[in-house]
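Query form — protein Hydantoinase B/oxoprolinase family protein

QUESTION: What is the three-dimensional structure of this chain?
INPUT:
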Amino acid sequence: MCFSCQTAATRLAPVDAATGSHGSAVGTPGHDAPAPNPAGLPTAYEHGNRLTPEGTTVDPILVEIVEGTLASVEMEVETAIARTSRSPMIRDAHDFRAGIHDRQLRKLTGRSYSALVHPIARDFPLSEMSEGDVFFHNDVYESEGGIGHLPDLCVTVPVFSGGEVVAFVQAFGHHDDIGGAVPGSMPSNAQTVFEEGLSVPPIKLWDKGVPNQAALRIMTRNSRMPDSLAADLDAECSACLMGARRLGELFERYGRGTIEAAFDAILDKTTETYRREILSKIPDGTYVWEDYAEHDGVDEPKLHTQRITLTKQSTGGPGPGDGGPKLVIDFTGTAPQAKGPINHCGDYVGGNFLKKWLAPILRNLADTPERMAELDVNEGIVPLIEMKFPEKGTLLTPIYPAPTNARTFVILRLLGVLAGVVAKAVDGKMPADQETIRYTGVYGKDRDGNDYLMREVLGGGSGGRYYADGEDTIHVVPDSRNLPTEFTESRFPFIVERLGLAVDSGGAGRHRGGLGYEKHIRMLKDANFMSIADRSILACWGVKGGKAGRPFEVTVDVGGPDERTVDALADAEVVKAGQVIRIRTTGGGGWGDPLERPYDEVERDLRWGKVSFEGARRDYGVVADGSKDEPSIDTAASDALRAELRAERAVEQPFFDRGPGYATLAAGQHAADVDWV
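ANSWER: The structure tokens for Hydantoinase B/oxoprolinase family protein are given below.
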């Protein structure tokens, strides 16, 4: 056992054993040392339990007040970070999250996902914490699954009432650079975590209000952007300390017993709502589907399988949630861990992080879109989901020190795999596949000869739905945004010549997939282009007759003598001054038969410039002429063309359409065995 593990083990007393992730952590009563988690670290800390006895009542009006206050504090923390941070990724792109957790480490807020408090409680007993303490970590393998890659730095502040810890305020964000082999700390061909930057296990960064300057100096010394890193960390620590004061005031106002009863009521309400309104829509049974990452930056492109076997049970198992519907998500069949950085550490505390990460997909089963928007995801969904992981050594159960910086290829694909397997259960009444995160950027010397790094996270199209088209240029990171052109042009040596919708990128369907971005950047000085992206071969899939969207693509020197397509995983693609970089992000998959799309909706797409005249004919069987401003559809010719296209189809079509890129990685097959219903 390593020294840090021995130190933590001596601090922690064993607790009662529990059978699942929702309850006390795994431990063995009467033994001197707790059972280790998959990383070999002790897990004898309490988490997941109720704060008050079953049946405790609390004024429902007060519950609403508490719930509103929690949301307000969370928003205030995020606003403070946005206004006081410095890096483009945090301040402008808003790639950060805040969360509020109770003393049993349960996430109380549901506006956004967040990291976990579990590693802090594991290594630092609550009884030894003090007001003004700030804890820090980013070590993927010691985060209990809450941190996916090293650039996500996490700060945690305890909340006190009556001298005891009663809650936690936490924030984590994607920082521009924390060391490693390449600027931005996301080397596309990394084969160990050591190449990806500085790993920091849980430490006390502030002690009773006093910052640990030595630790801060170590972190900034390892960064290519030390000033912005220092400013961002200061913003996050200060914002969480402010949030802790706000929550402390709530406890003072109403009393600890009342507030903790309200916390239990908030989570109970979520459990009952999802049981009644969401899980009840899935028929009992077992359903299987899989999707794939396409490359890992080291091996040649191939299908890296991510499989879910979903079992809907009419009654839950032992513990919280017993007696109602339950979902079992089994990841058996997921591919071995990759050599490159697309792995994700998901198999910790019963998949606690992944449960809350994947659960928002289930909201699509709500009765209406308006109701879906009202449903938050907090710890209340945890007892409704059981996760089963394969043995160590897969994409979801990697063995240290496997690299993880591009783990979005896995955890974002899992959102689509869950949507797909549920779609099989509910006759397609789920959205088609959506865009996935990709990081693009340039770096080099600015006008003054100083090093710069510009990186952003451009969105793409969401999938068509059974009742509506997909949304254009959305992003799975809540409240995130592309970098403003005015800001980037004033700070970096390039000009943004175009930023608009990528025409024809949305998958064709009765309900079209949303469109991705098209962005043109003309470099004013020699630079290097970087990209961490997938969906450049495999497309966002369509469902129930809908077609796949257009994949991600980057072209350098558009229209010039050196025009070339750049690999989606690139660390240092040379771009000369005057050359244009064209970035086209993914379009969402289509839903339903595109030949059933009404002519007036195709005409509207032509008028809005979302579909070209050629695309209308090819994808929708619509013959049109005229101009973009005044398109005219030839109904008779379109009827004839649609009849011809229907006659050319195979008798049976798979339930999912993966696009033409799938065949290139699947030995010529156009559909997987699991694509049929």
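ADDITIONAL NOTE: Residues 1-33 have pLDDT under 50 and may be disordered.
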